[in-house]
Amino acid sequence: MSDDPETLRQIEELAADDRPLLVLDVDDVVLEFIRPFPKFLEQQGFKLTISSFRLTGNIAETATGRLVEQTEVTALLDAFFDDQSEWQTITEGAAEALAVLGQQVEIVLLTAMFHRHRAARRAHLDTLGLSYPLLTTEMAKGPAVARLRGASGRPVAFVDDQPNNLVSARQSVPDVHLFHLMADNSLRAFLPPLPDDIVPVHDWREATPRIAEALGI
User: How far is the C-alpha of 137 from the C-alpha of 103, rounded, in Å?
Assistant: First the structure.
C-alpha cells in the first residue's frame, strides 16, 4: 500500500506531538451517516434498502425500482457530502468522549472522501465544536496511520466502522489498537466475524475506557 500524496501533505502540516495517538474515522464514528443518508436519497428520488454492508446494489430509483450503478452511487455520495452540513450530526456520545480523551492524547480525524470535500467537512466540524485536525484520503488508510504515528513508537489506536480500514491499519502498523464502532449497530448483522485483533465497541460510552486503557492513559 502506498501513501496518498495529498494526505501526506496534510500530515506534514500538523504540529509535532509525541502524546499517544488516537485516529478516528468520521462517518458513522464521529458524524452520523447511515441514518441521514436515506433521507437525503429520498429527496433525490432514490431509496436505500439495506440488505448487505455496502451501498452499491442497495440504492434504487424510487419510481422504477432500478438499482443504481457504482458511478451513480459515487455521484450521490458526492452530492451528499457537498451538503453534509445540512444532514450530518454528531454521533451520540462522541463529543463528550473526545473532550475527555483529548486532554491526554493527540486526536486526528481521518476520513475517506474526495479531497475536494475537505473544506466543507472542516467547516462543518468546526461549527459542531469538533476542532480536531482533519485529514482526507482517497487511498487506503493504513499508510496514513503509520505516517501520523511517526518514528517514536508512541501508542496508537484507530477507530473505524469499516473492517477493511482497520485491516489496512494493522498491515501498516502491526501494534495498533483497533476498535470497530458503528453508529447503527443493527448493521453488524451484515458483517462477517471480525478478526480477533479488532475490538468491537457498541457506543462511545463503551469505547472511551477501552481506548484509554489501550493508550495507557
Answer: 26
Question: What does the block give as the cell for 122?
Answer: 472542516
Residue type for position 161: D
| Backbone φ, ψ for residue 106 (5° rounding) | -85, 125
Give the list of residues 6+ apart from residue 203 with CB closer than 8 angstroms, or none: 92, 93, 181, 185
Label residue 52 by pLDDT band (50, 70, 90).
confident
157 near 169, Cβ under 8 Å?
Answer: no
Give the Å distances, CA to CA, from 56 to 1, 49, 76, 208: 24, 10, 11, 32
pLDDT in tens, 11-38: 999 999 999 999 999 999 999 999 999 9
Phi and psi at 33, nearest 5°, equal -130, -55
Please name the helix (run of DSSP H) or strand (run of DSSP E) that holds residue 106, with its range, or none: strand 106-112
Tell me the three state secondary structure of residue 200.
Answer: strand
**Nine cell digits for residue 65:** 425500482
pLDDT in tens, 149-165: 999 999 999 999 999 99
pTM above 0.90, yes or no: yes
Per the CB < 8 A criterion, the answer to whether 29 and 161 are in contact is yes
